[in-house]
Specification:
Layout lengths: L1 E7 L1 E4 L4 E9 L4 E9 L6 E7 L5 E3 L7 E6 L4 E6 L8 E9 L7 E2 L3 E6 L1
Parallel strand pairs: 2-11
Antiparallel strand pairs: 1-3, 3-8, 4-5, 4-9, 5-6, 7-8, 9-10, 9-11
């Protein structure tokens, strides 16, 4: 099992920045990829960014490319999501997630944190 604990988030004006953190514990050696998802009211959950645990290769949704950066510190079992140039449409509950190496589905989820961007 892997446990994920998130921090960060909050209220910011459009154009501002926020950073989310996610600390993994437990069977961290089994992690293949960690990702950040978001879900706005009335909308489906969508992946925002992902980072391979060992290779550090990254993926970004088109909607956040050039504005969000996913990074990690494997020694601290932590992944970050730096969000710059925030827009009101970025408002959502954000979740970090992890899946085990060799699996495609995310098995472990953080508790979620609200990000609200005011116009």
């Amino acid at each position: 099992q892997v446990q994920l604990v998130q921090s960060g988030g909050g209220l910011v004006q459009a154009g501002g920045s926020l950073r989310l953190s996610c600390v993994a514990s437990g069977r961290t050696f089994s992690i293949g990829t960690m990702g950040w998802f978001r879900q706005a009211p009335g909308k489906e959950r969508e992946i925002v960014a992902a980072r391979a645990w060992r290779s550090s290769s990254t993926y970004y949704a088109d909607s956040v490319k050039g504005r969000f950066t996913i990074s990690g510190d494997n020694a601290k079992n932590t992944v970050y999501l730096q969000m710059n140039s925030l827009k009101p449409e970025d408002t959502a509950a954000y979740y970090c997630a992890a899946h085990e190496d060799g699996r495609a589905e995310y098995d472990y989820w953080g508790q979620g944190t609200q990000v609200t961007v005011s116009s």
